[in-house]
Design goal:
This protein has helices at residues 18-45, 48-68, 71-76, 79-109, 112-117, 123-152, 161-182, 192-195, 197-206, 218-224, 230-241, 252-258, 260-280. The protein has 287 residues and is mainly alpha-helical. The protein has one domain (31-280). The chain is globular.
Length: 287
Amino acid sequence: MTTPNQSHTPTSTPTPSPSSSAFAAVRAAGRRIRAMSRAEVRLLTRNTMAMVTALAMPALLVVFTYATSDDAVGERMELGSFITVAMTGFVLLFVVYYNLVSSYVARREELVLKRLRTSEATDFEILAGTAVPALLIGMVQVILVAVASAALLDLGVPVNPILVVVGVLGGAAVFVLLAAASTAFTRTVESAQVSTLPLVLVSMVLSGMMVPLDTYPDMLGDAARLLPLTPVVELIQLGLEGTDGTAAAADFTGTFSEALAPSAVLLVWIYLGVYAVRRWFRWEPRT
């Protein structure tokens, strides 16, 4: 029996802090992305030709470049740096960009994307889950080429490894976004070969990955620096050797000032890619 002087202390359930709630949300998003990535990996491993190409291309590129290189390359940059930059460009154009355009279109036409949008997964998680396998394969290829170049082609220690990482990761983000945006004018998986061709060809010729930009007329060279792959090439070249081949090599500190312009171009392409995906990406086939 209680007396008037006795009081009851109300009990309350502890509320999670904002930081713990955010951490739980990130973990849940990570689990959903991993689940979708595993499904994409299973589909990829069933494609024997794709797996052989992914594993063999780095070694073949090193051997081919070593056998066919001439002094013209060596005058501008070390052979190991040249092949590492070229491989990164090929990976972004073919393994990431072309492959993801095909993957996104295939999932859209099969109504997979539409079904995933009815689940707990966000739009970002759906797009990222599809992209992760291609990104992982691409990064493995770049690492294999860098290791082979260090062993066979005397690739030295990077002048500024931070710029190399920024270039690779920034390029990956740009070409994932461009792949998603390109699906807006790609109706079928087969038509991806045509819809991706302009960007692939222009990037291979005018990005600096194969032909130095200073060999072109000034106006064309300046315009080429605004392409999506060019800042990636410039950042990796600066990180590996301290120069993009058009000026004397800078030291670790000096490369940061040289990297401002390509970094700004890269950020602009990321912004444009995000805008294009939000504006034109379709989650289901056209009716």
